């Protein structure tokens, strides 16, 4: 399954995974091994979800930690599912902004909590 790496990411606001909430779905994951390219589209639970950027960052961080460095990864909001879709997509695509976010200790702690497999 294409979603096996990201299926257990926890939602930052709910005691459920992104897969359980249908934020990430198999049909919205495109993998091209020959071109070392992966595109994931995710659907926030509500159009005004304040955690959309954090969810996207969590997906991106997990993929960066899990995939060979040769992969180019795009993490995008599914078209038409969030009011700030373009702004969030721009943030998630900006390597410098992602790197800066990961230098923020508090934000990194929150991301690591989303990526923790056990829920204790």
Automatic annotation (TrEMBL):
Record-given protein name: MIP18 family-like domain-containing protein
Q: Which Pfam families match?
A: FeS_assembly_P
User: What Gene3D superfamilies would the database entry show?
Assistant: 6.10.250.1280, Fe-S cluster assembly (FSCA)
Q: Which GO terms describe its biological process?
A: chromosome segregation; protein maturation
The UniProt keywords, alphabetically, are: Chromosome partition
Which protein family is it in? Belongs to the MIP18 family.
UniProt keyword Disulfide bond, yes or no: no
Give the record's GO CC terms. Answer: cytosolic [4Fe-4S] assembly targeting complex
Residue limits of the MIP18 family-like domain? 6-75
Carries keyword Methyltransferase? no
Q: What is the lineage of its organism?
A: Eukaryota, Metazoa, Cnidaria, Hydrozoa, Hydroidolina
InterPro entries, per this entry?
FSCA_dom_sf, MIP18, MIP18-like
Q: Which residues form the signal peptide?
A: none
């Amino acid at each position: 399954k294409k979603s096996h790496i990201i299926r257990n990411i926890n939602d930052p606001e709910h005691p459920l995974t992104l897969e359980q909430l249908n934020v990430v779905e198999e049909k919205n994951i495109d993998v091209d091994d020959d071109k070392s390219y992966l595109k994931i589209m995710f659907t926030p639970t509500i159009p005004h979800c304040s955690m959309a950027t954090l969810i996207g960052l969590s997906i991106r961080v997990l993929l960066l930690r899990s995939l060979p460095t040769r992969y180019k990864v795009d993490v995008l909001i599914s078209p038409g599912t969030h009011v700030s879709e373009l702004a969030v997509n721009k943030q998630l695509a900006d390597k410098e902004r992602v790197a800066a976010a990961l230098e923020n200790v508090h934000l990194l702690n929150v991301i690591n909590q989303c990526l923790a497999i056990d829920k204790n």
